[in-house]
Design brief:
Helix content is about 70%, strand content about 0%. By secondary structure, the chain is mainly alpha-helical. It binds heme-as and copper (II) ion (CU). The site of heme-as has 34 residues, from helix 6, helix 9, helix 10, helix 12 and helix 14.
Length: about 550
């Protein structure tokens, strides 16, 4: 049993708790969006709930899961205890207190600013302080994992960094570079403004700094997901990893290209020159590549698993895969959805097409396939594998665990495809009254919002199943001697190919140069213009 199991579990339980609260809110929202008359359906409640859902899912659930998973990966793959466990616990506390503060502000209705917290919407200062503390806590985690690797490196001269750790280090580099942007936004602009030290804020500058962070944030979620796809799922499927160097190549490309793409969220924003938007658009087309590589490599690994079980035809290996095993089916279904979500991403990033989909329901369709399925369903599925091994307990309610990924897949299909379609028909995202008080145009969205509400019901049932299995296992699972946590072997065995892909210092430096290249000039240009600050608004 691993030594940092308590640490990992403490992080994972916070993730599970945040997810449970956030999915209850999501259920209410999707019914509300379908114009169903709920007892406490008000504009104020709706936006409060959307904010809580976004923050708890996108920031708290993901970050805590990744931290818990990161400790497990560091210890198991490096074969040594985590260095700096005291700092790791302190970081957990800091992030937990931050979560409590931000949630408190949101639930009191004093931070209804949605998870992107764009000014001039203004939140209670404790909301900003709370989210900043979550980030500070995550920096502590970055330090502990990176330091553990560093100590291991000294102890193991000539040994190659294990692939799962390679992916986690890539994730850490991306996170550190990304959070500089949001730290600047929160500390320099938002906190002084929300406590009243200054009267106005520059919303455009805040948006630039936010998206410097906001896009790499999605790869901070995605990279640990890819670590699971490359290094755990092929083994669970009974196969081997098709190619270790291709996985490392994908990780390195994501380090380089995660950040200098942020303007693809601001293609219609004024104040950023078209040339810079184009530069970020080109980079976005490049950043698709590591995901294509991932699709190829992971599917090839699944094919190996199917063929090992005797498949001989072109596609019959698919039938041989363990579809009844939730740690596998969740990932396979997550990948299928990500194929659609990634395709949508390429559409979002295209200058002209973005004008059609920006700020419409299409966007929430897109990100529920990506973070809401590729990432979240993978994390849920992986917890069926991890939790019994960390708790030393047998998985409880296995039938629920088995159907849960399929319920999620079906629910998300209904929810997400209908959101894409209503988005194309012009339905805005983030509106309380999708019927627009009975307007003619809004009538064509009605069927779509109804379907998405049905999807929401499926998703809620699926979420409940997952939470029930987790708590059932934690509280009542039969005590067992746990199996070890193991990673997939590469098909070609240990190999020394492309050692340059392990030069983290080099890649972090090139990535930092690219960030400067992508942001220094546009920010300087923005600051040199005449700027108009805005006072804060708190509509609810
Ligand atoms: Fe995105 C907006 C572009 C990926 C999340 N994105 C968002 C927002 C979120 C988000 C949360 O260019 C909303 C932000 C907000 O609130 O305003 N996104 C992209 C692009 C990619 C992409 C180009 N997004 C993600 C990921 C996310 C995520 C990953 C979270 C984890 N996105 C955008 C743009 C916007 C945007 C614009 C702004 C839109 C606007 O106007 O506001 C790429 O990284 C996607 C690459 C992925 C692929 C797919 C590879 C497929 C794989 C699986 C294949 C499996 C198969 C079947 C075929 C190219 C790896 C398996 C078979 C078996 C047998 C199992
Ligand atoms: Cu993006």
């Amino acid at each position: 049993m691993i030594q940092s199991r308590k640490l990992a579990l403490a992080n994972l339980w916070v993730a599970i708790g945040a997810f449970a609260v956030a999915s209850a809110m999501a259920f209410m929202q999707s019914l509300s969006r379908a114009d169903l008359d709920l007892p406490f359906r008000t504009v104020r409640m709706y936006y409060l709930s959307v904010t809580a859902h976004g923050v708890l899912m996108a920031i708290v659930f993901t970050t805590f899961f990744i931290m818990g998973f990161g400790y497990v990966v560091a210890e198991r793959a490096l074969g040594r205890p985590v260095v700096g466990r005291r700092l790791a616990w302190a970081s957990w506390w800091v992030a937990l207190i931050g979560t409590a503060l931000a949630t408190w502000a949101i639930l009191r209705g004093e931070a209804t600013v949605l998870y992107t917290f764009y000014p001039p919407l203004m939140a209670h200062p404790l909301f900003y302080v709370g989210t900043a503390l979550v980030v500070v806590g995550s920096w502590g985690w970055c330090w502990v994992v990176a330091r553990t690797w560093h100590v291991w490196k000294k102890e193991s001269p000539g040994v190659r960094t294990p692939l799962p750790v390679h992916g986690m280090l890539a994730s850490i580099i991306i996170w550190v570079l990304a959070t500089i942007g949001v730290a600047a936004e929160v500390l320099v602009l938002l906190i002084p403004w929300s406590v009243g030290l200054v009267d106005t804020v520059d919303p455009m500058l805040a948006r630039i700094l936010f998206w410097w962070f906001g896009h790499p944030l999605v790869y901070f979620w995605l990279l640990p997901t890819y670590v699971i796809w490359y290094t755990m799922t092929p083994r669970i499927a009974g196969g081997k990893l098709f190619s270790d160097p291709l996985a490392r190549l994908a990780f390195v490309m994501l380090i380089l290209l995660a950040t200098p793409v942020g303007f693809h969220h601001q293609l219609v924003d004024p104040g950023v020159e078209a040339g810079w938007k184009l530069f970020h658009t080109f980079n976005t087309q490049l950043v698709l590549f590591p995901s294509f590589v991932t699709a190829f490599t992971v599917i090839a690994s699944f094919e190996i698993a199917g063929r090992k079980k005797g498949a001989r035809g072109l596609f019959d290996w698919i039938e041989e895969l363990p579809w009844g095993e939730p740690a596998f089916s969740s990932v396979a279904l997550a990948m299928l959805m990500f194929a659609v979500g990634g395709f949508g991403g390429a559409i979002n990033a295209a200058y002209g097409m973005n004008a059609v989909v920006h700020n419409t329901a299409w966007i929430q369709g897109h990100f529920h396939l990506t973070v809401g399925t590729a990432v979240a369903l993978t994390f849920m599925g992986t917890s069926y594998y991890l939790m019994p091994r960390l708790l030393g307990r047998e998985l409880e309610l296995t039938l629920l665990a088995r159907i849960q990924p399929y319920l999620w897949f079906g629910g998300m299909l209904l929810f997400s495809i209908s959101n894409h379609l209503t988005g194309l028909a012009g339905m805005p995202r983030r509106v309380f009254d999708a019927s627009y008080a009975g307007s003619e145009i809004a009538r064509q969205w009605v069927a779509g919002t109804g379907i998405s509400a049905v999807g929401g019901i499926f998703l809620f049932i699926s979420a409940t199943c997952w939470v029930a299995v987790m708590f059932g296992t934690g509280l009542a699972g039969r005590r067992i001697e746990p199996d070890p946590i193991e990673f997939a072997e590469p098909l070609e065995g240990e190999n020394g190919k492309a050692p340059i892909l392990d030069r983290f210092g080099l890649w972090a430096t090139v990535a930092a140069v690219l960030v400067v290249l992508a942001y220094a000039w546009p920010i300087a240009q923005h600051l040199s213009m005449e700027r108009f600050g805005s006072p804060g608004f708190t509509p609810f």
